[in-house]
Amino acid sequence: MPSAVETLDEQAARCYRQLQGYTTDLERYIYLDQLHNRNEVLYYKVLTDHLTELLPVVYDPTVGEAIEKWSRDYRRSRAVYLSIDRIEDVRTSFEELGLGPDDVDLLVVSDAEEILGIGVWGVNGTDISVGKLAVYSAAAGIHPGRTIAVNLDCGTNNEQLLNDPAYLGNRHARVRGKQYDKLIAEYLKVASELYPKALLHFEDFGPSNARRILVDNAKKYRIFNDDMQGTGAIVMAAVISGMKVTKQSFADQRLVVFGAGTAGTGMADQIHAAMVRSGLSEKEARARVWLIDKQGLVTDDMSDLPDYQQAYARPAAEVKDWDRHDGEISLLTVVQQVKPSILIGTSTDHNAFTQEVIEAVADGVERPIVLPLSNPTEKIEAMPQDVITWSKGKALVAVGIPVKPFDYDGTTFTIGQGNNALLYPGLGLGTIVSGAKHVTDGMLLAAAEAVAGQVDPTALGASLLPDVANLRASSATVAVAVAKQAQEDGVATVTPDNLVRAVQDAMWQPVYPELPKH
Ligand SMILES: NC(=O)c1ccc[n+]([C@@H]2O[C@H](COP(=O)([O-])OP(=O)(O)OC[C@H]3O[C@@H](n4cnc5c(N)ncnc54)[C@H](O)[C@@H]3O)[C@@H](O)[C@H]2O)c1
Ligand SMILES: O=C(O)C[C@H](O)C(=O)O
Ligand SMILES: [Mg+2]
């Protein structure tokens, strides 16, 4: 080795300078991934020191592009691969890691059927698990050595991958039905037996599997679906913040969800539950939710509605006089009829929130909450600057991607990042610190309230959500609230006297360990 002996800070400064030499975010992603593979402490040091700048590089939106090119650019495996063709190998695949029952806090698994909004990516989807874990470690100090990324390779229907000679996954159509269910059951069984203390995080599954797996297993395993629960909770945080401006309660809201899949219906469920908690009956609350999917407004005369949409289908009779185009009731018509106080986009339909739609929303109520949440950037329903301009500064906006502050009519608007990354790291840490047997609805709500409690959104242009730069502190606050709620909900298995201290102590810092002295 060269003679110089450097500190971690000096090494990190060199890496950061090297990073400046690249021109595209994908190149930066690859550089950081190689650093991740070479020196994990140094990688996290650079990442945590420049979190606002580098989160969009290691995570959304760049991770979407990295996934598309993953086989082409393959470097090194950072995950456990479980093949649908070799379910009998699930246990050995984990055992090969040599980790004991007390060694693992967290697994992130994806079957890559709905990566962000870019569809099915087979084994290339590995990096969504890797990226989510990097955010857990950088934002909430979950020890990276105590985490495992998992890819479930169920085949892929993505022709581009099947025809790509470089593709590294199973070259057959996606396997569904009994064989798929067997793989999921085996994963849950093995992972929870080998690592009984670990939280099992599910990411970017297709809508029907995401919901089914969560509903069937929520009571049996320590399981969390980020796209449903994490997203639902960050949206709750944004809405709680927005209601501080409008001085309303959940019972006053009218919710339109555009894109009623995993994330959209997950949010509808959490906001519906909050409406019930604020005094509405189940039925009254349902009557305040409108789902729109590919076939327009979801109504109860539609055949083959998936179960997660049925609950909110509007009676056909109620909308029989509404305008239709090609038989469908459009987003614009729904907005004009309903005058939503909250409009959410989780459709992947880029630019669906047109000027006409946003103007209609702003005509309907004084300060509408507008959340175009589809990722990555090329899927977003509307850019925040447009939503602010078209609503004449009235809309209260958050989006899934990071956006720089901008001026409108003499005011600077700061747009919060309504991405589950602002919430799940703290939720995970709180779950781990409390040893919670399950992630309860109460814990999700506590996380949402803790996130919202960190901002004052009342000034015009203020953000609805905390700044990513404060994510580490914000995650610690969320973790304390979640662990406390776990105790109140009777699911905590560890009850430290001083929760704040326990959370701080549990947070891993990127520093080199002391070498033992001889
Ligand atoms: N900001 C966040 O934290 C966050 C979290 C989860 C998901 N998302 C984003 O939300 C989007 C959806 O993710 P998902 O996991 O729910 O996917 P999904 O496939 O489960 O749901 C998408 C839904 O939108 C519908 N849709 C597609 N095109 C449409 C159109 N033109 N009009 C109306 N509806 C249409 C689909 O039929 C489907 O029901 C993705 O872009 C994802 O990145 C964001
Ligand atoms: O990964 C993200 O950026 C958020 C979310 O989980 C998504 O699927 O879009
Ligand atoms: Mg996701």
UniProtKB/TrEMBL annotation:
PANTHER family: MALIC ENZYME-RELATED, NAD-DEPENDENT MALIC ENZYME, MITOCHONDRIAL
Family according to the record: Belongs to the malic enzymes family.
Cofactor: Mn(2+)
SMART domains xref list: malic, Malic_M
Keywords assigned: Metal-binding, NAD
Top-level lineage group: Bacteria
Domain Malic enzyme N-terminal: 36-222
Protein name (database record): NAD-dependent malic enzyme 3
InterPro entries (alphabetical): Aminoacid_DH-like_N_sf, Malic_enzyme_CS, Malic_N_dom, Malic_N_dom_sf, Malic_NAD-bd, Malic_OxRdtase, NAD(P)-bd_dom_sf
NCBIfam families membership: PRK13529.1
A Pfam short name: malic
